[in-house]
Amino acid sequence: MNNEILNDRYQIQSELGRQTGRRTLLALDLISNSNVVVKILYLGKDFDWQELKLFQRESETLKNFNHPAIPQYLDYFEFDTPNDKGFGLVQTYVAAKSLEQHVEAGRRFSTTEVKELARAILEILIYLHEQQPPIIHRDIKPSNILLTNRSGNSVGQIYLVDFGSVQNVAAQEGGTITVVGTYGYMPPEQFGGRTKPASDLYSLGATLIYLVTAMHPTELPQQDLQIQFRQFTDITPTFADWLEWMTEPSLNQRFSSAHQALETIENPAPRAKAIITQELVNEPPSTQITLNKSDNKLEILMPPKGFGISLLAIISVLAPFCIGIHSEKINVFNLIGLLTEIDISSGALLYLILQIFSLATLIYLITSALFKETHVLITEQHITIIHKLLCFKRRRKYPIDTDKLSQLKVVSTLSYERMKYELWLIQSDVPILNFNKYSNLTESERRWLVQEVNNWITKS
After folding, report:
1. Exposed/middle/buried for residue 299 (C-beta within 10 Å: 0-12, 13-18, 19+)
2. Who's near 46: CB < 8 A, 6+ residues apart?
3. Whether pLDDT at 176 is above 60
4. Phi/psi of residue 39, each to 5°?
5. Domain 5-92, what architecture?
6. By Cβ atoms counted within 10 A, which residue in 83, 172, 229, 433 is the most buried?
7. Architecture of domain 97-276
8. What pLDDT was estimated at residue 413?
9. Which of 36-40, 419-423, 444-448 has the highest mean pLDDT?
10. CB atoms closer than 10 angstroms to residue 323
11. Percent of all residues in the chain with a pLDDT value above 90, rounded to a whole number
């Protein structure tokens, strides 16, 4: 496609990015003889009209912007060729790499530099959020922030790009809910399609955490939806507090405006206050979990996990095979007859062995779901995990360094792979036990266990 001319004016030089139905191109404006960015939206057979709505909204929004750190709108056109048809948006080109490209190339940012970047982006957000109606970017992330090379004492010039997800508050309140954004950088309220100016603050905070850890939020642990990043960086506790306020999962607890975030970046309220004022969680009335606590021992008795969806799926696959639906002659009930036959084929014998193995697995899974209990015993010297199934016991013991007992804790995290909350026992940030693996926990049970176990560890 290189050297192809769009709209009789824009000669394509190279491709900058590609998504389904979209392309971002570097082109030469043959009239101004300058480089420009041309974003193309194709009208294919699987075209989603919501995409056109967002594309046109981006165009109309850029028309009204006049900020040195935001690319300027230049042109909008339609095209219809024998091969393709669609729409094009032209904007000024910024010769700079994204923050993500800088980090992937090995660049690391000091705390001073990260704060300088934070201030620059907050100034852009103040400009956006003070528009009438306020403009919410909704997709702030490392790949959408460009940074030029250092100049003098400056970290470089910042640019905020890709307004394809932008939305104004008036359109949001009166229109259809559209969920857009990038997983890991989206605040919880954005999953429901409702965003506020403070939603951009969460995304910026997550982006800054990426800069100080060189890890995307999806690669970091979470506790009650709060990104846990402190152990992966050496920034000051005060700046870490500020980043936690920026990425507070609760919209009501987060900084309410870019102004507030900018004013408090050097002196945020300590996060410890929020921890102290947490409400006590009572024992869930219907729980089957039992806690036995003494001064030097904590025992957690967890009931059988029961039949979950995944287990039922496995059982439904194994059961027909175990009863031999593929062969009337070969199944576990005619084992003696098969073994006494003279002309036994190796294939038949292999099939029988597989059936026996499948039946044993099926019996184990059902028995475990109904009767397998897990006991977790914590002392100052050991963590002992006992799995009890009928008259059988399996015991695993993990030694604890007494001096590091304070580094033992239980945390509730969101598993991105399974999109569910999990409860982990960890020491020095090393996972030891996933409670969800042995028992199906409700939200109230998770919160209660986090409180009770961590309280016992603190008192010990």
Report:
1. middle
2. 21
3. no
4. -100, 125
5. 2-Layer Sandwich (3.30)
6. 229
7. Orthogonal Bundle (1.10)
8. 55
9. 36-40
10. 14
11. 32
Residue 332 phi, psi dihedral angles, 5° rounding = -65, -15
Kindly report, residue by residue over 279-322, the tens digit of the pLDDT: 567 888 888 888 888 878 888 888 887 877 777 778 888 887 77
In the numeric block, the tokens 């030089």 are attached to 13
Extents of the domains making up the chain: 5-92, 97-276, 290-303+374-459, 309-371
**Nearest 5°: CA angle at 239, between 238 and 240?**
90
324, 386 contact by CB (below 8 A): no
Summarize the confidence of residues 170-184 as an average pLDDT: 58
For residue 357, the model assigns a pLDDT of 84
- Could you tell me the two tokens for 278? 């947490």
* Over residues 415-425, mean pLDDT: 57
What is the distance between the alpha carbons of residues 305 and 242, in angstroms, rounded to a whole number? 40
CB of 285 closer than 8 Å to CB of 444: no
pLDDT at 405: 53
The CATH code for residues 290-303+374-459 is 2.30.29
DSSP 357: H
Please name the residues in contact with 157: beta carbons below 8 A apart, sequence gap of 6 or more: 69, 96, 147, 148, 151
Kindly report the length of the chain. Answer: 460
Burial of 435 (0-12, 13-18, 19+ CB in 10 A): buried
Q: Quick check: helix, strand or coil at residue 314? A: helix
Check if the beta carbon of residue 135 is closer than 8 Å to that of residue 128.
Answer: yes
Q: Which 8-state DSSP code applies to residue 224?
A: T
Q: Confidence class of residue 448 from pLDDT cuts 50, 70 and 90?
A: confident
How many other C-beta atoms can be found within 10 angstroms of the C-beta atom of residue 330? 21
Q: Token digits for 346? A: 């190796």
Dist. CA 336–CA 451, nearest whole Å: 57
